[in-house]
Amino acid sequence: MHLILDLDSEAPIYQQIRDRVVEAIAEGRLAAGASLPSTRQLAVDLAINFHTVNKAYDLLRREGIIRISRKSGAVVRPDAGQGPAEPQAVADWERRARTLLAEAVVRGVPREELVDRIRVALDGFGVGRGDT
Q1: Residues 69, 35: one domain?
Q2: Are residues 57 and 97 in the same domain?
Q3: How does pLDDT run across 62-97, given as a tens digit for each residue?
């Protein structure tokens, strides 16, 4: 798994790891059932503290995106991205999306440009135009 982190970002490293894993799943680079590197191995690969990776993996586990066991390690849940989303997950996502959209409005991003960028992102995740 190849993750690119911005160590100068205001976003915490654990959050960046979480976000990159979610993006990799949405883009199809990480399939359902795929194993993730151990926390220690990913920490070595990224030259960060393994507790930071552990915090990211725990967040992904609590969100139901990965499964963690002592025997198999961290694995993308077989049902990740399948079926209808849980109402609480949708509510959480909507809250975060609203904040991101508000930031774009405050920064003066025109509505049509914003909509176009959202479409491009969705296309990158393999979400067809017929789904919108």
Answers
A1: yes
A2: no
A3: 998 999 998 889 999 987 666 667 788 888 889 999
Domain-located, residue 60: yes
- Which ranges constitute the DSSP H helices of the chain? 13-27, 39-46, 50-62, 87-106, 111-124
- 132 pLDDT band (50/70/90 cuts)? very low
**Among candidate residues 38, 50, 75, the one with its CA nearest the CA of residue 60:** 75
- Measuring CA to CA, which residue among 38, 119, 121, 104 is closest to residue 75? 38
pLDDT digits (tens, 9 = 90+) for 115-129: 999 999 999 887 755
Cα(74)–Cα(62) distance, integer angstroms: 12
pTM of the model: 0.82
- The answer to whether residue 121 sits within a structural domain is yes
Kindly state whether residue 7 falls inside one of the protein's structural domains. no
Same structural domain for residues 100 and 66? Answer: no
- Under 8 Å between Cβ of 3 and 46: yes
Residue-number span of the structural domain to which 60 is assigned:
13-76
